[in-house]
Structure formats: structure tokens, C-alpha cells
Design goal:
Length: about 140
């Protein structure tokens, strides 16, 4: 996958996140840094609304990837960086945002909150990423 294709894919996924949040929960994600706090709420709303269905593998994969892309696009606009497509595990290719020497697993942090620990905050992860790159 070329960098251009990956950038388009991630931008499309971020757009999908906005559509899903609006359609399923009547929540507007406006591409602002403040809206990332809303992503934390949206992720838990999936469990409230869909219960176990929200935790089926395919649903989890989609939810985490589109909301990870949404957060990543905002972060990328603020601090730069490039999307990195990692195929080191062919069964589970992942996408990271690479900034300087750091990589951010944005879909991964969404997964943590959705599946493992509702106390994990996507917004706190985002704020930490910002703090890592303040000049």
C-alpha cells in the first residue's frame, strides 16, 4: 500500500467515524481536539447500545480502526507525522501514526478502552502524544 493510498484510507476511516457517531448516537465529531474526549464516550456507548455484539471481532476491528483514524488525523494535523502500515504480523496488520521517533497505536488505545479497560482514556493518550512533541 502506497503512502498516498494509506493517507486516503485513514482520512476515509476518520470520515466514517463521524458518520457512525452521528448515525448511531446523534453525536457530532467536528475534527476539533476537544472532540477526542467525546470519542471516549462514543466507544463506551457501543457497549451500552449493542452489548456483546459490539465486542464481536469484526465489529471491534472496525470500531477501533475508524475511531483510531479519527484521533490520528487530528493529531497528525497538530504535530505532523506519517501513517505507517505495519505488516510484521501478516494475520494482524496494524496502522500507527509515526511522529519523530515515536509511534502511536491509536486503534490500539481505542481497543484497550472498548474491550479491556473502560478507565483507559483515548483523550489522555492523545494529550500525552501532544506533550511528547511540544517544542
Amino acid at each position: 500500500m502506497s503512502p498516498e493510498e494509506l493517507n486516503k484510507l485513514m482520512a476515509d476511516c476518520a470520515s466514517d467515524a463521524k458518520v457512525v457517531a452521528s448515525k448511531e448516537f446523534d453525536i457530532t465529531l467536528d475534527d476539533s481536539p476537544q472532540s477526542i474526549a467525546t470519542v471516549d464516550d462514543v466507544l463506551l456507548s457501543f457497549i451500552d447500545k449493542f452489548h456483546d455484539q459490539a465486542l464481536e471481532d469484526e465489529a471491534v476491528f472496525t470500531i477501533c480502526n475508524i475511531f483510531g483514524a479519527y484521533v490520528g488525523e487530528i493529531l497528525k494535523n497538530q504535530i505532523g507525522g506519517e501513517w505507517v502500515y505495519d505488516q510484521s504480523n501478516p494475520k494482524a496488520p496494524t496502522v500507527f501514526l509515526g511522529v519523530g521517533g515515536n509511534t502511536y497505536a491509536l486503534a490500539g488505545i481505542c481497543y484497550e478502552r472498548l474491550v479491556n479497560d473502560s478507565q483507559v482514556s483515548v483523550y489522555a493518550y492523545y494529550e500525552q502524544a501532544l506533550a511528547n512533541h511540544k517544542h
